[in-house]
Design brief:
about 325 residues; Arc Repressor Mutant, subunit A; 16 helices; about 50% helix
Length: about 325
């Protein structure tokens, strides 16, 4: 997103307005756990082409080395023994950087093919998004190898344009169109080149860390992210869906769409969190019912009591009596 901002600004397009109009919110701090909805990114490119009037704007990327960090994935590639080893790590751990992209490598005769695929969600993916992402990846690989690494061929799955020169200039190689896949092809000689910063001890350390990251991301559903936000904001009052969506850097509509896909809703998650926490709090005898009501974000103890009876068919007070847990008198 930060490279995109530089690209748009350099071409006279108000990047901040484009982000806002697309429903994209970029945090000020560096947080690699933030995910921007894939539909919003596609919408961003559609608006960029519309506002600039330039369908070739993605090809005007002028990256500053090094590109913004690819987090631990970048370090894993930098410590790999060869380019092909680094590309294999890139494909294996790409989900740490983006859950909207996939990659794989394949030996194709005397060449190594790196296939790249984007998931568009409910929206079609503009070709400019593929062009920009592949140029960014190519420049990143050049930075890793500390050389002007030019592919043998770049394959793009889009119609052949009338003018090939902008593509050949941007990718610095032959470009094929109407391909079955989006792909970067390197020679075997290029693939076997050693990475200048290879370190056998560090590469094992980075692999271990990235495997842990991938394990955590598997549970990083929208529902789980919302649960975490609700738990932290409940003491401030009943959480509002719009505010939670903003905190997760997505529009309210996108949040709702993700929850529908996961088979749940904001109100169901809120109700589940309150139910689980109510039992936890009631087992802490020093907490009075009015305090628990506030911790759960209810507007008054009576609202908490009604919800608890709906959940467990008994009142909070009777539940405590069954635990032989009595409240301490308030001083």
């Amino acid at each position: 997103m930060r490279v995109l901002r530089d690209l748009f600004d350099a071409n006279g397009v108000n990047a901040n307005k484009l982000f806002s109009d697309s429903g994209i919110y970029i945090p000020n701090s560096t947080d690699f756990n933030v995910r921007v909805p894939t539909e919003a990114v596609s919408r961003l490119w559609e608006l960029a082409v519309e506002v600039s009037g330039d369908p070739g704007i993605a090809l005007k990327l002028k990256p500053k080395r090094p590109l913004p960090s690819f987090d631990a994935l970048g370090y894993a590639m930098l410590s790999s023994p060869s380019l092909i080893s680094g590309l294999e790590r890139f494909s294996r751990y790409l989900s740490v950087v983006s859950s909207a992209a996939e990659s794989c490598i394949e030996i194709r005769g005397d060449r190594i093919a790196l296939y790249f695929h984007l998931h568009g969600g409910t929206q079609p993916i503009p070709r400019q998004r593929y062009e920009f992402d592949m140029l960014c990846l190519l420049e990143f690989f050049r930075w890793v190898m500390n050389s002007d690494l030019d592919p043998v061929v770049v394959e793009l799955g889009q119609p052949r344009p009338a003018n090939l020169k902008p593509y050949e200039k941007a990718f610095a190689c032959e470009v094929d169109f109407q391909a079955e896949h989006y792909c970067l092809l390197f020679s075997m000689e290029q693939a076997l080149r050693p990475v200048p910063t290879f370190n056998s001890e560090l590469v094992s350390l980075h692999d271990s860390y990235l495997n842990e990251c991938m394990g955590r991301l598997k549970g990083n559903s929208t529902a789980n992210l919302i649960r975490e936000r609700i738990v932290h904001t409940l003491p401030e009052g009943e959480p509002q869906r719009a505010k939670i969506a903003h905190a997760l850097h997505m529009s309210e509509r996108t949040l709702q769409r993700h929850l529908v896909a996961e088979g749940t809703s904001f109100s169901e998650i809120l109700d589940d969190v309150r139910r689980e926490l109510s039992v936890k709090y009631l087992n802490q005898c020093h907490l009075e019912l009015i305090d628990i009501s506030c911790l759960l974000g209810f507007n008054g103890q009576s609202n908490f009591s009604r919800a608890f009876k709906r959940w467990f068919n008994t009142s909070p007070r009777k539940y405590r009596e069954a635990l032989n847990c009595s409240e301490s008198p308030r001083v």
